[in-house]
Amino acid sequence: MVWLFATATGLIVANLYYAQTLIGPISRATGLDPGAAGLIVTLTQIGYCLGLLFIVPLGDLLENRRLIFIALLTTALALLAASLTSSAALFLLAAFCIGLGSVAAQIVVPFAAHLSRPETRGQTVGKVMSGLLMGIMLARPVASLVADALSWHAIFVISAVGTTALAFLLRARLPQRQPDSGLHYFALLGSMWHLLKTTPILRRRAAYQACMFGAFSLFWTSVSLELTGPRFQLSQTGVAIFALVGVAGAIASPIAGRRADHGKSRSTTAVALTLGALAFALPLLIHSSRLVDLGVLVLTSIVLDMGVSANLVTGQRAIFALPADIRSRLNGLYMALFFMGGALGSSLGGWMFAAHGWSGVLWAGLAFPVTALCVFATEPRA
């Protein structure tokens, strides 16, 4: 079941990121202004944030398997619409709906935590989140390779078919889970504000990950523009290979989960945030030949992905240690808050690249983990 959960979350969340390395061809095909190209990713993330706030909490109210099934079919329809349109406005609307339906992944993750034993919950969440992060990281090279072989439309068609198949597979394999919260929907939503006010660990962990995910989204939204530009002149296949190497960063997830289970969350967080800052410092400090600079960018992608994945799993382990009857709401709040950071990062990345070039992107990216480290410095020791 852990492997099923991990694979499912990876396939679902990949839908949010197929467009990230295809911003150039999608913008040209739909007539979207280069300065607004970041909206392709930003609107997907905004849809995801709203889904986390208004759909994921239903995991504490409605039967989970049915909720996942409906959300996945919605995502498949939106993917199909994105593949068929040549209008910028319609594509952006479809991107928003893709994000909205892809929150099914964050109904699956608490489901996995609910089925796991308390003493191994961090490891279980780490394995599932490894699948999720692999989905995020593999989405970029897969999308680039498919676009090179066929067209950018093809990846959305393929994903629509795959998401539909996954919906029926999960409906057949997942056990039923009917929560017993005793709340109506609007009371459930109202309780989320109360949970945010009364759960300091949620606010702190969300702040760390919002900064880290903002840096992550900014980097991956902009790096394809830099790699295909005059400095490196890579093809979409070259961008795919670059993104594929970044997948190595996912190895940090299960390691972070085990350390969190052993009570080492604080030191793991410190290392994760430091890796985020180091990732952007490297290309700012090292300037050499084209080949060396490309190698530094590869190292940056791996180090950044390691920091983001380790911090994410450590945060979710802390959230899932709280009572099971509020787990979906806490997870929805946690993910929504840090995806807001991601939406800020992706929109800022496109604008910074257009206005200030790659160096502007790197300085903006560095500001995110440095801010997280400043917040972390105020954390009281247990």
UniProtKB/TrEMBL annotation:
Residues covered by the Major facilitator superfamily (MFS) profile domain: 1-382
Keyword list, A-Z: Membrane, Transmembrane, Transmembrane helix
Keyword hit for Transmembrane helix: yes
One Pfam short name: MFS_1
UniProt keyword Membrane, yes or no: yes
GO molecular-function term, one example from the UniProt record: transmembrane transporter activity
Parts of the chain that traverse the membrane: 37-55, 67-84, 90-113, 125-143, 149-170, 206-225, 237-257, 269-288, 294-313, 333-354, 360-378
CDD domains registered for this protein in UniProt: MFS_NepI_like
InterPro entries, per database record: MFS, MFS_dom, MFS_trans_sf
Protein name: MFS transporter
